[in-house]
Specification:
With about 190 residues, the chain is α+β, with helices and mostly antiparallel strands. Helices cover about 15% and strands about 40% of the residues.
Length: about 190
């Protein structure tokens, strides 16, 4: 999976919806796993607490060896992908740029004294917006020895070299207009991954 993720270029996180039944009680919980930003986990926890569905929350004292965060929320009612609370949670995450890429139906795990139902949702994490590189026009003189259809190198205002093809009907010494990237502006620093 990590090779696939590296090839397609996105990170994913997951939510596990659990419902456990024992002889005397029913327990529901949500587990958030993956490289979730701390702020997002706190925001999710606050939203679910405001809805009155959280009994307790468990956070590890530190991240796992891969640097991933996790949180377990004990719930006082069943929450799954089709419940109002589950759909509200997924809608909220989509509004923050997360996209559902895979979900599994309910699977049942039976133990000696308990039975557990699990649903899993995998979400693609939001990507940073790609900076659009603006173009500018630049006048260039076709160098000696280059004929129509021939290629030559130019230096752009941003300091890059660019290959240009002499248009049909032009000769060495003619001036042509070429679109080149603007000077590179300092890009905003990327936020550190949490």
């Amino acid at each position: 999976m990590s090779r696939l993720r590296a090839r397609i270029g996105f990170k994913s996180v997951s939510i596990h919806f659990y419902l456990s039944f024992s002889r005397s009680q029913q327990e529901a919980s949500l587990h958030f796993r993956g490289p979730w930003p701390d702020a997002m986990l706190y925001e999710i926890e606050d939203i679910l607490k405001s809805l009155g569905v959280v009994k307790f929350s468990l956070r590890p004292t530190r991240k796992n060896p891969w640097g991933y965060n996790s949180i377990e929320l004990g719930l006082n009612q069943r929450v799954d992908m089709t419940s109002d609370t589950g759909m509200l949670l997924l809608d909220f995450l989509e509004s923050k740029g997360y996209r559902v890429i895979r979900s599994t139906g309910t699977s049942t795990i039976s133990g000696t004294f308990t039975q557990t139902e699990e649903q899993r949702v995998t979400l693609r994490m939001p990507t940073l917006p790609v900076q659009v590189q603006q173009q500018q026009e630049m006048k260039v003189v076709i160098p000696a020895g280059v004929v129509a259809g021939g290629q030559f190198l130019i230096n752009t205002p941003s300091g890059q070299q660019m290959t240009v093809t002499a248009p049909p009907g032009t000769n060495a010494g003619d001036t042509i207009v070429v679109n080149v990237p603007n000077k590179a502006e300092p890009s905003a620093p990327r936020p550190p991954e949490e």
